[in-house]
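User: Fold this, then the next.

Assistant: Folding the first:
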Amino acid sequence: MILSDLKDYLKSHEQVSLRDVAVRFDVSEAAAAGMLEHWERKGMLKRIDNPSCANVCGHDCASCPMQCSALYRWTEG
């Protein structure tokens, strides 16, 4: 199942971006965001806003329409 594969991927990397996940699992960024949201809702994944996002698209990560620099970190041991 892809969610368990994603969990393994997240646990093996210090942090990942939305684009990393989309490329790794060969899915759209929208699909990757949905999978990441699953683990966020469970409290096992934390979204980290990257301060460089404003330099890329001019938005903070929370309102970035491209989700260009949002990073994610696994928080469950």
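Now the next one, as you asked:
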Amino acid sequence: MKLEKLYKKAVEIGIKNDLRGKEEIKRILKDEKEKHKKLKDEEAEYYDKDRLSNPFSDSRVLYGDLNTDVKKVIVGIDMEGGEILLTYILNKELKQKIDLIISHHPEGYALAQLYDVMKLQADLLANYGITISVAEQLMEKRISEIERRLMPVNHNRAVDITRILGIPMMCIHTPADNCVTNYLKTTFEKEKPYKLKDIMDILKNIPEYKKLSKLQVPPKIVSGSENSKCGKIYIDMTGGTEGSKEIFEKYANSGISTLVLMHLSEEHLENAKKAKLNVVIAGHISSDILGLNLLFDELEKEEKLEFVCVSGFERIRKKR
């Protein structure tokens, strides 16, 4: 599989699993094209043209020729200096012939643009009955906060190593997170958990969560109890990073009773408890593994790949 095809297919899978729907994605891409047309020459020089076809600014080919043949990949949740040097050693000393590094978490200019995908969260909130103007204004504040937090980061540190060593690299973030969000939403709609203990049972029977449970990082109820009724469940596992700290009362007012999340900061959790919401932390790395596996399951319908798994990732192929 050519690197370009792999990249485009990953984006396509992300769109397919995006809860905003294909029509909304088409509108976003159309708006982006109109914006691009209006740019002045000096502005166009710095424009990221991937935005014209890829609505996920945190997922990019970071280095490498798009015409590269990809048969064997090394995949991890975080692929930084150590993992990149390991790839070089595997190729140089052990003749592994790894063609591509795939990181889940963004690096390079994909990391610099991470804040932009957070706009996705406002639309998901609107789907659950939260007024769109309220959702957008709360998210705008949080997006600005994350943008400022990312500004001083040394974004290209890992990518520079891949460039010097001549190893292609890409990151697949929101498309994989969309896969796990959609999968859990569909699973809960089918299984209809009544109490939080039922959510826990569902999660612990999914191989990726079972694996991390054995590593002492199981799903956990952090607000509510096993016998608390689920009520309306909101799954928040996509959109870059945690949303607004002020959104939790709005969740409760819209009829949501239970949040199922990858992770939650202490300040966010305290606000969730004040709003009397149940909160289940499914697990960060386990959810990332599940999202990547779902995406690779779809991608490998086109062509099988050989995987080297590092940095928390394990390739689990199965029919879901």
